Amino acid sequence: MQLTPKLITHMGLMISLAFILHQIRIYHMPQGGSITLGSMVPLLFLSFCYGPGIGFLTGFLYGVISLLFNPYILHPVQVLFDYPLPYMAIGLAGYFPTRIFLGTTIAVLGRFICHFISGIVFFASYAPEGTSPYLYAFLFNASYLLPELMITLFLFKLLPLKNLMKQVK
To answer: Is this prediction's pTM over 0.85?
Structure first.
């Protein structure tokens, strides 16, 4: 897909809206990760409207902006697994433009996998003594991404997505 002025404008608006919604935190985890008021909805919506390629690009840009404004850096590889890659995974939803709940769930699962890998490799030292780093990374990331998924699915249930998607194209 060609990056037209209209598409670039939509990307900028959705990135901005996602960033603003990310600031409305219901809960913020001690080592990062938040339950927000639907911050993934704009990025997912763009993926559903324009497909996975635009979703991946928009997620990458959002991840870089998130890194600039709220960095938590331990290692360069950790940066990849906590910022651009998990938000690029949101673009996976673009493969399911007519199956919003399935696409959203797969996208959040992709994001979870990135954070889970980062948790095992770079944050295992935060696990309580005697706790498996795998279990710790799983529970830590699930504790905020599962509620985030539920909020996102609820918001998609409320939004008139079919009408909105027609207006975008």
So the answer is: yes
